[in-house]
Amino acid sequence: MSLAAAQHGSLAAAQHGFLSPTGVEIAFLLVGLVTLGAALVTVTTRQLVHAALWLVVALGGLAVEYLLLTAEFIAWVQVLIYVGSVVVLLLFGLMLTKAPIGRSPDADSGNRWAALTVAVAAAVALVWVVVDAFRTTWIDLDGPAAGTTRVTGESLFQNWVLPFEALSVLLLAALVGAIVLSRKAKADAAVTGAAAPTDTAANSPARSSGAKPASSPGDKEGAR
Question: Inter-axis angle of helices 149-159 and 161-209, to 10 degrees?
């Protein structure tokens, strides 16, 4: 079975080379460029809400890429979990923490070059690992869908069940952290509001002490 699949993959590779791409491959490249651009805008913009919306575009582009790779199940999981859950969780976190709507100078830590270096190193390592692992693997995009629900489910819940559950715990921790930060912000606002009248009352005698005292009738008669 594996020999037949290898022969089929080599035949598909011989028919479609890098210099004669198909329409699906061109669409894959264009969607990849759009996804890359959206990801760059997500990490470079100073508006937090815009970053979350551009993240929707980037994650949606990945879902389209999965569809073009005939992995329909992974594509719909990408839409339901990441676009429909993770981004909504991020938006709720922004609302609970009262994040600024406009440009936020605090969104830029000043470590752009360090972040760029780490991002390029991670991208190079990821590309090298993927190319080395799937160097001789070819996917016939014109053939039947390869990412069926049964095969994907068996691989996910047998071999990758621990990272799957760890991701669930991570999302729960993010939601709890957003709630804690929201309660802390409300407590600080309440303390500030309670301290403001006290300061006003403490400053009022100082203002009155500097005022000119009223003259009595006897003083007026003495002046005459």
Answer: 70
Q: 31 Cβ partners below 8 Å, 6+ apart?
A: 61, 64, 65, 68
pLDDT single digits (tens) 52-105: 889 999 999 999 998 888 888 888 888 888 888 888 888 887 777 776 666 666
> Of the candidates 158, 145, 160, which has an alpha carbon nearest to the alpha carbon of residue 71?
145
Whole-number Cα distances in Å, 186 to 2, 55, 195: 62, 28, 14
CA distance 31 to 38: 11
Query: Tokens at residue 44, please?
Result: 């470079």
Q: Shortest CA distance to 71 belongs to which of 151, 170, 178?
A: 151
Collapse the DSSP code of 191 into the 3-class scheme (helix H, G, I; strand E, B; otherwise coil) and give the result. Answer: helix
How far is the C-alpha of 64 from the C-alpha of 193, rounded, in Å?
Answer: 50
Cα dist from 219 to 170, 213, 222, whole Å: 79, 12, 5
The answer to whether 27 and 70 have CB atoms below 8 angstroms apart is: no
The tokens of 139 are what? 């996917």
